[in-house]
Design brief:
It is built from 8 helices and 5 strands. By secondary structure, the chain is mainly α. The chain has 2 domains: 94 residues, no CATH class; 88 residues, no CATH class. The protein has a 3-stranded mixed sheet with strand order 1-5-4, covered by helices on one side. Strands 2-3 form a two-stranded antiparallel sheet. Strand 4 and strand 5 form a beta hairpin. The longest helix is centred in the last third of the chain and has 20 residues. The termini are far apart. The structure holds zinc ion (ZN). Zinc ion binds next to helix 2.
């Protein structure tokens, strides 16, 4: 999939408007021109690109690698700017930067300096209402499990995740993601009273994927 940097995201359906970054291909090539990304910016990008969402069954091959052994990626990173913007980049963005001289747009790099510590806003409200509403789009609910953790300091996130464990279908499909989200909260000292023993196996599995203190 190839999209122009900063264009409206349209790869998959998503409950929030987002902008595309790093969806590179042959038509537009390495957008912005081949350059070396500054080390500090690379660190910012790596730190902000920790958890994949929208992991699907198919993979995408890098169109700049030798065709005999292309790098393959799956899933996307989402970055929530304090100013209300959301950017979506393919998992392969780190490969494009590291191996093919891709430099993401300056506006996006600037926003990475503001991704942590988000105030509760309409995006959080929307994701929360999706997660706890069984009539909402099922895929949206699975992605909300992942992205709500961006507001981990707010107690509503822990409450919604615990509530979601009562939904058997959600646990069947995304129990590991619920566990990862709970694990991230716990690694930040949130959710200390959670009874881990009583959690469904899939949730425990995800929880174990996250390093806890
Ligand atoms: Zn490549």
């Amino acid at each position: 999939m190839e999209y122009l940097d900063l264009s409206l995201y349209e790869y998959r359906k998503f409950p929030l408007p987002m902008r595309s970054v790093g969806w590179l291909g042959r038509q537009f090539g390495v957008q912005g021109g081949v350059r070396n990304l500054a080390t500090a910016d690379m660190q910012l990008l790596v730190e902000a690109s920790q958890r994949l969402g929208s992991v699907t069954l198919g993979t995408h091959e890098c169109e700049f690698c030798p065709t005999s052994s292309p790098f393959e990626g799956n899933g996307e990173y989402r970055y929530y700017d304090r100013n209300g913007d959301v950017y979506a980049a393919p998992m392969m963005i780190l490969h494009y930067v590291g191996q093919h001289g891709y430099c993401p747009p300056a506006e996006f790099l600037e926003s990475l300096r503001r991704v942590d510590r988000l105030d509760w806003d309409w995006r959080a409200e929307r994701l929360l209402s999706i997660l706890v509403d069984e009539s909402e789009d099922f895929d949206f609910r699975c992605e909300a499990i992942i992205d709500l953790v961006k507001w981990r300091e707010d107690s509503r996130v822990l409450e919604a995740l615990i509530y979601s464990i009562q939904d058997e279908e959600l646990v069947d499909v995304a129990g590991d993601e619920i566990g990862r989200s709970l694990g991230i909260l716990m690694s930040h000292g949130i959710g200390g009273n959670l009874r881990v023993d009583s959690l469904p196996e899939m949730v425990k599995f995800g929880l174990d994927q996250v390093a806890r203190p």
